[in-house]
Amino acid sequence: xxxxxFDFLGLLGALGIFIFGMKIFSDGLQxxxxxxxxxxxxxxTRNRLTGVLTGFGATAxxxxxxxxxxxxxxxxxxxxxxxxxxxxxxxxxxxxTTLTAWMVSLFGFKFQITPVAVAAxxxxxxxxxxxNVRLRSVAEAMVGFGILFVGLDFIKDAVPDINANxxxxxxxxxxxxxxxxxxxxxxxVGTILTLLTQSSSAxxxxxxxxxxxGWISFPIAAxxxxxxxxxxxxxxxxxxxxxxxxxxRAARFHFFFNVFGVVWMLLLIFPFxxxxxxxxxxxxxAPISVxxxxxxxRPNATLALSLFHSAFNILNVILLFAFVPRLVRxxxxxxxxxxGTSGEFHLRYISTGLMSSPALSIEQAQKEIxxxxxxxxxxxxxxxxxxxxxxxxxxxxLEAVHKREELTDILELxxxxxxxxxxxxxxxxxxxxxxxxxxxxxxxxxxxxxDIYYQVAKLVERLQAANVALPEVGLGEIExxxxxxxxxxxxxxQNVALVPENVDLDRSISLERRVNALRxxxxxxxxxxxxxxxxxxxxxxxxxxxxxxxxxxxDxxxNVNEAAAGQRIKALRLAEARxxxxxxxx
Length: 586
Fold this sequence. Notes:
With 586 residues, this protein is an all-alpha fold. Helix content is 78%, strand content 0%.
């Protein structure tokens, strides 16, 4: 045997170049797609059929079913898609990933594309240093495309020749003589190969090279392809481990969908492979059976393996399409929703890390900010009830408000950390940077609102400790203030869910002014009652403190609305007022 350790290291290096090229190619394509990835995936919201087409298209863009499914799991975790909507794109991703096999078998074995690949690297390499982000991303994708095929050429050269190294064939033959059990064994081999490379496309390329070099027979290569269909589901399941229950369900669906497909294909594999062989012979210039050991049959065998890969995944979608609702129910039974009863808080949407592009990561953070607003609204209701319906259980109710206030501290820190990680991403547009800064402002103001609500709740505790109560008329006026602030809160809830261009700031400013006007009116009424001896001085101090704090909450709400709109209207108007005052003074 002439194959040495140095030769083996060369093979590993060639494989590394191939995978590196595929990663650069995929990352470049995703950056070119940018914000449109969300629009592409939005097509799955109508029905499962459009979901399949969308999944196919997204995988064609990313050149990786693993990337697409991990992205879908992240979207489900982020609430951008439902579990049911994700099933279609997962099925489509299985079909889309077969494009890589066709690309490798056609360009890698049928044609000499390496000179073209090297020329592409030379042509696009200078544009990697361009100022234009989109042009730089296109150049990155094309350089990755070139490196991918250079790596494939290196793999073909680094794989040992069977004729010069017969011991390798003898070693593999020991595992191919068990008939049907050999197929099951190589299904496992294909699964492990995909786990090691973390890419079903890379594993498929390796399988094609092994088949082309005569290491394995066509049936064994087909069994490895089936195993790679199972192995590609593992990465998404790992990503879902830190996700919510819906993300876990999407990942489990992918696993069981592919496993069921492999099971039925193994039952029909030999007739199916003969049908693929017949099809290839009908359209081949050299009609040689792919089951033949002749070297002349190997190019046909690589095409046949690509056809098998595509036909299997397409048929699997067609056959299981009608059973998707049952599979969904099975996965929901297997992965029940226990998160709502655990009593522990978990970030819902940003637990799976950064998305494939900064724009999508920002959308994920925006979902978490909506949760933040929901917690603040819960505090509003709890404090309102505490103030207007004070009773002997004030300690427990105050503790519930305190827990929510501590929760907002966690939300601010976690979301802020996530936004900082987005900001650290290279090549951010100025609009994205500005959006991140406004979102940081939003969470800071939301946390400040929660602090003020807790302070209002503590005022109730002070009243009870002093054995003093607000008069009925004062409580009625406080209730008006809470109602005015709640109207502003509801407006804020709508605004944080919108894109900045759709935020109606005029309405938000009007609601804030209404709170200001009510505060001024109540303050005048308060001073009148205080002068007339309407209530104890301590109760009057607490009353005025509550009114002022609620008005400050409305100020912070307007700050959040301005940040949601990507504007600083209040600061701008203040600057204009100061400029006008300076002009009139001169």
